[in-house]
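for the writeup, i need someone to sanity check this before i put it in the appendix. the sequnce is what the collaborator sent (i think, or maybe the updated version? ugh). structure was predicted straight from it, no edits. if anything looks off just tell me and ill rerun, i have time this weekend
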Amino acid sequence: MTTFLIALLSVVLIVFIYYIVKRVRRNSALKILLRHSQKITDKMFVATLEAQATTYQQIFNFKADLTSDPVQKIWGRGIMVFEYKMQIKDPAEHDVAFFNAAFFQKFEAELNEQAADNGIISAMLSIHPLLLAIIGY
């Protein structure tokens, strides 16, 4: 009887250790993917802001080394979502009405054009590789 309990406990312990190791490996792989995606997204975002054809440099205060903050804890595992915070240079000139849906659609189109120029494609061809979601506080 004790041999059976020891064997059963050993099997349970082996299964538990297997799932812990599997979870640690998966989480470290997700962190690597997150960092890689963040670097690419930061590069595309800054390149879009610095493009000569746009006026974003006149609207926003930003640095060439602008980086994002990942917010995947809010959205869930495997979804790469990054948050950017920038100040507006002249709030009186660029009020809330200036930042309407057309402004953000144009910015998203330019962002995806920049991504296409750099060979970044989506895994699903019907969806753009970079999506812009505006969430107010």
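DSSP finds four helices and four strands in the chain. Residues 59 and 93 are 9 Å apart (CA to CA).
thx in advance!!
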